[in-house]
Write a structure and sequence with these properties.
With about 260 residues, this protein is α/β, with parallel strands linked by helices. Helix content is about 35%, strand content about 25%. A hairpin with a 3-residue loop joins strand 1 and strand 2. The N and C termini lie far apart (about 45 Å).
């Protein structure tokens, strides 16, 4: 059976996630932006952490860890390639490896680009992927360390997952990402509806994360590099998809 996923708003625009197995009581946390909201949610649900999964080393994804571990001494899992700048890991993982969470094999994907050593966690039975600051709702993370080619490869890996996969990303950036998508001048019906739906959700104070991978593939400009209509809007018809992605990322950086 799929595990339960709980989305926890943190800081000003971050998200952390809990994954809970009701049969065994196992509970995993993905990223630890700050302790307060996470500890409060665990207490409210009377859950005890067994695993903590870290996507990358940026402070707004790890700074809450010491206080959380003080109450919940869980097993900390993160990228072997990033171990030198992550908190102490109990399990260091690389792409292609799997580990068990309450009977579900969790796959590790290298999604470098935003940082080098950034990983995502795919829960195939739960049909969810935790992408941190790689693939986001209507966007992707800024390239602080990696290259456009690295991020393009990372997003290509994620796009290959089943369309029904729930994408649990790290920030509430969807409104600004929608504004950027609109600026590209390639707003088909799916994109226009996504923009409208996002505005309505935010007006009601609703989170736009998580989203579905199928919806991202329809509407997220960073996943549409092979789309002739987007290429035409950018004035680079027939360009290689990685070059289209590079142009979209360049425009977003100065948007």
């Amino acid at each position: 059976m799929p595990h339960e996923i709980v989305t926890i708003p943190c800081l000003s625009d971050n998200y952390a996630f809990l994954i809970h197995d009701p049969t065994t009581g196992a509970t995993a946390l993905v990223d630890a932006p700050e302790p307060g909201p996470i500890l409060a949610e665990l207490k409210r649900r009377n859950w005890t952490l067994t695993h903590i999964l870290l996507t990358h080393h940026h402070w707004d994804h790890i700074d809450g860890l010491p206080d959380i571990l003080a109450t919940h001494p869980a097993k900390v899992i993160g990228a072997k390639a990033d171990a030198h700048r992550l908190p102490s890991l109990d399990l260091a993982v690389t792409e292609g490896e799997t580990f068990d969470f309450a009977g579900e094999p969790v796959s590790v994907l290298d999604v470098s680009g935003h940082t080098v050593g950034h990983i995502a966690f795919h829960f195939p039975d739960t049909a969810a992927v935790f992408t941190g600051d790689s693939l986001m709702a209507m966007g992707c993370g800024r390239l602080f360390e990696g290259t456009p080619a690295q991020m393009f490869d990372s997003l290509t890996k994620l796009a290959a997952l089943p369309d029904e996969t729930t994408v649990c990303s790290g920030h509430e950036y969807t409104t600004s990402n929608c504004a950027f998508a609109a600026s590209l001048g390639n707003n088909d019906a799916n994109v226009a509806k996504r923009i409208s739906d996002t505005a309505e959700m935010r007006a009601k104070g609703m989170a736009t994360v998580p989203s579905s991978l199928g919806l991202e593939k329809q509407t997220n400009p960073f996943l549409r590099s092979a789309d002739p209509a987007l290429q035409k809007a950018l004035g680079i018809q027939g360009a290689a998809p990685v070059d289209v992605f590079t142009e979209v990322r360049k425009q977003k950086d100065s948007f």
